[in-house]
From TrEMBL:
GO cellular component: membrane
Family: Belongs to the peptidase M2 family.
PANTHER family: ANGIOTENSIN-CONVERTING ENZYME (PTHR10514:SF27)
The UniProt record lists the keyword Hydrolase: yes
Binding site for Zn(2+) 1: 385, 389, 413
Identification of the protein by name: Angiotensin-converting enzyme
Cofactor note: Binds 1 zinc ion per subunit.
Protease as UniProt keyword: yes
Reported cofactor(s): Zn(2+)
Group of enzyme by EC: hydrolase
Catalytic residues, chain numbering: 386
Positions that bind chloride: 227
Length: 447
């Protein structure tokens, strides 16, 4: 086996410098009788090297599959994941020989704690293979699904080529034809949801089995464990109760606006809002219907799509603008390889997973974004969100590999909510063109 590269040894030095972490109670830890902490530190360093190399191999295989959905690439992705899970098992068997909860060094103790939950690698070989294939098949089905348009012109199979991104996404955001919206909503679920039902039910069974083998009641317990907060569920319930009155008012307001557009026969005066009218395939983001819900319709909308097109902004310009936003706060610029290896627009020669995502390859500064970007404001906000992930990747690149993730899953996703507040930044597009270009232009929005 080749010796670890220099940066890996630098990561090992972090073991002596990182700060202790405070956490709440958790499941019963899995540990053994060995108490040699110096030996444990050496193993932690060695495991860091092994895991880093393996995670890079997995991410490369997953990237190749997500950017070119073929049976061959799916096979290589599955193989890499299974190989990684075998390494997870090997490392877990070694670290659980130690009485790591008694280690004095908080960083070594933390590394062992992170590695003591085996996850789905605890399943039998047959079930691991089954689970990994199920996930790959569901991803392929979701990425490959296409539907026919609401209005057929030729009645040929070639006409049925509407993908989730960008075609269905754009229809849901821009169409105000109730029947067309209902059509794409239902048809997409027929091709992307219904065929996955059997696989998904089995996926849930296998996840729950893995969770129980790891000492949790079910998969939700295993997922919540990473937040390291015993009262997570009860506090979320309490916060929801506090938020509920405001949400009900917002819900009623949006429902009344939609009722005015589509009529009382389509939108009830009370009760649930028809989900296909909210401008998003999952109804999770209502910004697509802002021109309907805006409380002061005579005021100018905060939507700079037209300004972006008027100044002939390209997709590359959008990413450069986002980079400028982050560097203006003292964060690092994107490395040269980011611009060389990222996929920023939808290719025409192959099937890819279009859902925007940021990728950390765990070796050096190899970070990338995959996004089927269009020149519009909504996508500009997504660009900021994804680049926010990449800034995280770059800032913790020298940490031991098990620390190269958000402190909990909320940290990374919180930057999406923050980026929704970047509308002032994007408004600068309108206010700075062309005169603002002479005095800094795009910087005006994020002072």
């Amino acid at each position: 086996m080749a010796p670890p590269p220099r940066w890996t040894w630098l990561a090992c030095l972090v073991l002596a410098a990182a700060t202790p972490v405070v956490r709440g109670a958790a499941r019963q830890p899995v540990e053994g009788d060995l108490e040699d902490e110096d030996l444990a530190k050496m193993y932690a360093c060695y495991a860091n090297y092994l895991i880093t190399e393996m995670w890079n191999k997995v991410v490369v295989a997953d990237w190749n599959y997500a950017n070119n959905i073929t049976d061959y690439n799916k096979k290589k992705s599955v193989e890499a994941t299974l190989e990684s899970q075998q390494l997870d098992l090997d490392v877990w068997q070694n670290i659980t020989k130690y009485r790591w909860t008694k280690f004095e060094d908080p960083v070594t103790r933390r590394i062992f704690e992170k590695l003591s939950v085996l996850g789905t690698a605890i399943l039998s070989s047959e079930k691991k293979t089954e689970l990994v294939n199920i996930i790959a098949n569901m991803q392929e089905n979701h990425a490959s699904g296409k539907i026919c348009p609401y209005v057929r012109k030729t009645n040929t199979p070639e006409e049925c080529n509407l993908s989730l991104e960008p075609e269905i996404k754009n229809i849901l955001m821009n169409s105000r034809n109730y029947s067309e919206l209902l059509h794409v909503w239902n048809e997409w679920r027929k091709v992307a949801g219904k065929p996955m039902k059997k696989n998904y039910l089995r996926y849930v069974e296998l996840l729950n089995e893995a969770a129980r083998l790891n000492g949790f009641q079910d998969a939700s317990g295993m997922w919540q464990d990473v937040y390291e907060y015993e009262a997570l569920e009860s506090n979320m319930a309490r916060l929801w109760e506090q938020l509920l009155p405001l949400y009900q008012e917002l819900h009623a307001y949006v429902r009344s606006k939609l009722r005015a557009i589509y009529g009382p026969d389509k939108v009830p005066e009370d009760g649930p809002i028809p989900a296909h009218l909210l401008g998003h395939i999952h109804s999770q983001d209502w910004s697509g219907i802002t021109e309907i819900t805006r409380p002061y319709p005579n005021k100018q909308a905060i939507d700079v799509t037209n300004a972006m097109k008027a100044r002939n902004m390209t997709v590359l310009d959008m990413f450069k603008m986002s980079e400028e936003f982050f560097t203006s706060m003292g964060l690092p610029p994107m490395p040269k390889t980011f611009w060389e290896r990222s996929v920023l627009t939808k290719p025409t020669d192959r099937k890819i997973v279009c859902h925007a995502s940021a990728w950390d390859f765990f070796i050096g500064k190899d970070v990338r974004i995959k996004q089927c970007t269009q020149v519009q404001m909504d996508d500009l906000l997504v660009v900021h969100h994804e680049m926010g992930h990449v800034e995280y990747f770059l800032k913790y690149a020298k940490q031991p590999v098990v620390f190269r993730t958000g402190a909990n899953p909320g940290f990374h996703e919180a930057n999406r909510r923050y980026n929704r507040s970047l509308r002032g930044h994007t408004e600068a597009l309108e206010s700075s063109w062309p005169a603002g270009r002479q005095n800094g232009g795009r910087r005006n929005g994020h002072q």
